[in-house]
Amino acid sequence: MIPVIAEYWSHTVVFLTVHDILTRECAPLLLNGQLQHFVKAGCHAQPISMALSYAIIAGSVFLKLPQIIKILASRSVAGLSAVGIVLENLAQVFTIAYSMRIEAPFSTYGEGFFGLAQNCLILLLFVPFAPKKPLHFLAAIVPPSLLVPLLRPDVPFPVLAVLQSATAVMFILSRTPQILANFKNKSTGQLAMLSILMAAGGTVVRIATLVQAGVTDVPTLSPHVAGVVLNFILLAQFIMYWGNKAELSEVEKKLE
C-alpha cells in the first residue's frame, strides 16, 4: 500500500511541477514523452529560461560576498560610494514592490531581496570604517524599511508604476559616483571585480529571461539594460587601472 501511495504522490508532484513550469500546450508533450515535438514547438526555451532565472537568484546570494570580504580584509571602504549603494537599494525596493503588485513570477525579481540585504550589510560596514557614522547607519536601514508601506494594497498602482519607471535613472545615478571616483583616482579602490563581473553577467542573462517570459515593458527592462552598460564600464575601469591603489579622497568623502 505504501509503495502505491508513494508512487502516486511522486507522479502528482512531477505533474504539478511540470504544469507550473510549462505552458498548457507544452506540458502534455513532455509528460507524454513527445520530446521531438516538444523541441520543435520551442517548449524547451521555457524551462531553460526558468533554470537560468533561479541560477541568477542563487548566484545573487553570493553576489556581494567578494565585496564584503574585501572590505573586512582591508578594513577600508576607500573608493566605494555610499550614495550609489543607497540609490541602488531604493531602486531594488521599488522593483520588488512593483513586481509583487503585478504578481510577476518570483523567478523574475527574486535576486533583488538578496542584493538589498547584502547592500545593507555593506553600508553597515561603512560605520566602523568611514566618517559620518550615523548617516551611514540610517542609509542602511531606511531604504529597506520603505518596502513594507509600499506593499500595502491601498498604495495606488500608478504610484508604483512611476517609482518603477524611475529605477533606470536611479540605477544610472547609483553607478555614476563610483565611475567618476574611479576616473578621478585612476583606481577602483576597494571595489571587488568579481562582484561586478557577476553583476554584469547576471544582468545580461536577466534581460534574456525576462524577454523569454514575455516581460517586455520598458519600466521593467530599462534598469537591466542600464545595468549592462554601467557594469561593463566598471569592468573596463578594472582593466584600465589594474594594480593602482587609492586612498579615500575628499571628493569620495563628500560622495559618502
List keywords for this structure.
256 residues; mainly alpha; 14 helices; 0% strand; disordered N terminus; disordered C terminus
- Number of separate structural domains: 2
Mean pLDDT: 79
Strand content: under 5%
* Low-pLDDT stretches: 1-20, 248-256
- Main sheet characteristics: none
Instruction: Count all strands and give the number.
Output: 0
Provide the helix percentage. Answer: over 70%
User: Treating each run of at least 4 consecutive H or I residues as one helix, how many helices?
Assistant: 14
The geometry reads as globular
N-to-C SSE string, H for helix and E for strand: HHHHHHHHHHHHHH
Measured distance between first and last alpha carbons: 66 Å
Main structural class: mainly alpha
Radius of gyration: 21 Å
Secondary-structure blueprint:
Blueprint: H1 2-21, H2 26-31, H3 35-40, H4 45-60, H5 65-74, H6 82-101, H7 111-129, H8 133-145, H9 147-150, H10 157-165, H11 167-185, H12 193-212, H13 218-240, H14 250-255
